[in-house]
Amino acid sequence: MFNRDRWKEILEVLTSNWFRTLLTAFGVFWGILILIILLSAGKGLENGIKQDFNGVATNTMFMWTQSTTMAYQGLPEGRSFNFKLEDVDLIRQKVPELKIISPRNSLRSASGVDNVIYGTESGSYRIFGDYPEIIMQNPMYVAKGRFINHNDIKEKRKVVVIGDGIRKDLYEDDEEVLGTYLKISGVNFMVVGTYKEKTSNGGNQDSERQIYAPFTSFSQAFNRADNVGWMALTAKDGKSISTLTDKIISTVKQSRKVHPDDERAIGFFDLFKQYNRVETLFSAMRWIAIIVGTLVLISGVIGISNIMLIVVKERTKEIGIRRALGENPWSIKKQILMESIFLTIISGMMGIIIGSLFIYGINTLLDSVGPVDMFMNPSVGIGVVTLALVILIVSGLLAGFIPAQSAIKVRPIDALRTE
């Protein structure tokens, strides 16, 4: 390994026909480069998509009412109905595996009509009546002041938390927001906090332009009584919301006198199932990238093996002379293997270096132009690079093994006769 003459000989062999060596090395270089680019691009897309889930309780389902499609217990088909607050307590009793149950109501203005007024400014925004736990299910955090709390719920306080986008729309940059009053559909609410979102959708026109009020005061102010528009339900850690869906829906069907076989009376969206689909998609993409990159790499390794066979063929007489002078066959085999490994590793390392520079350049470009929808921070883990190095070493051994075996099988007398 540390024999100077051996390394001098390896360099002489590889540089004697440098163009052929360059073309041979390009196969391995290209295979590693393609592998790194594919994996980093997939990771960048994965990071971008998952950023939209940042702060969202993914083990969550959303449930709402629709018209019934089957008559039941004397009630007609096509009946509209609402969830009630008592349904929330019933679900909490019947399904103890749930961590959070958030009943929700919302208010949206008629098209083109402003429903929120502050001083001389006004705007059209969506207002939610919520419980404090909703902040643990939505991708947001309090930027200033506080969020709604259970005292607000209990005392039916007319307070709201507004998005930072609304603050920018209705207030001056240096104006104090906390303690001011907004008139929402004719009812005054005091601002006690502002929130920002954790997702990357900063350019969305609806981003941070929603208002959260206590569920009780919202219901009182806008005549919702004990009706619930929809619910957000999150399972406890270690439990899957998907396994609880049937039990939850069965509970509310019984409470609202809906036929057990009516599949359309209650609508729901299983966020956990959708998130798992995204995970499965990116897992498949990673495997596709690995397979494609590996196949390209194998083609490069095969090219090195073929070239090493040609090199051995060209050096048949030299090998015969060395064998006739008493050189150990293993020494000759080691020479061929080292040449193959050296060429494979050098070309592979160049692929890793160029790939790393490419990723660095893409990240620098993204930093300069700002966040791009569904794509951010493309990268490749150190584990992938380490695995690539191991593959290179093994590939070099495999690429040199057959030529090395061919070299030591030639009898010295036959090798000396070769011209």
Written overview of the protein:
The chain is of the alpha+beta class and 419 residues long. 53% of the residues lie in helices and 17% in strands. Strands 1, 3, 4, 5, 6, 7, 8, 9, 10, 11, 13 and 14 form a 12-stranded mixed beta sheet that branches. The longest helix has 44 residues, at 271-314. The mean pLDDT is 84.
Provide a concise account of the structure shown.
The protein is α+β, with helices and mostly antiparallel strands and 419 residues long. The protein contains 12 helices and 14 strands.
C-alpha geometry: elongated
Give the helix/strand class: alpha+beta
Main sheet attributes: strand count, strand direction, barrel closure: 12 strands, mixed
The SSE string, one letter per element, is HHEEHEEEEEHEHEEEHEEHEHHHHH
Mean pLDDT: 84
Strand content: 15-25%
State the low-pLDDT regions, or none. Answer: none
Number of helices: 12
What is the CA-CA span between the terminal residues? 31 Å
- Radius of gyration from the CA trace? 34 Å
Instruction: Count the beta strands.
Output: 14
How helical, in percent, are the residues? 40-55%
Please specify the SSE layout and strand pairing.
Layout: H1 4-16, H2 18-51, E1 60-65, E2 83-84, H3 85-94, E3 98-107, E4 116-118, E5 121-123, E6 126-130, E7 140-145, H4 150-155, E8 159-163, H5 164-170, E9 181-184, E10 187-197, E11 210-214, H6 215-221, E12 227-228, E13 230-235, H7 241-255, E14 266-270, H8 271-314, H9 316-324, H10 329-369, H11 382-409, H12 412-417
Parallel strand pairs: 6-11, 8-10
Antiparallel strand pairs: 1-13, 1-14, 2-12, 3-6, 3-13, 4-5, 4-9, 7-10, 8-11, 9-10
Helix pairs in contact: 1-10, 2-8, 2-10, 3-7, 8-10, 8-11, 10-11
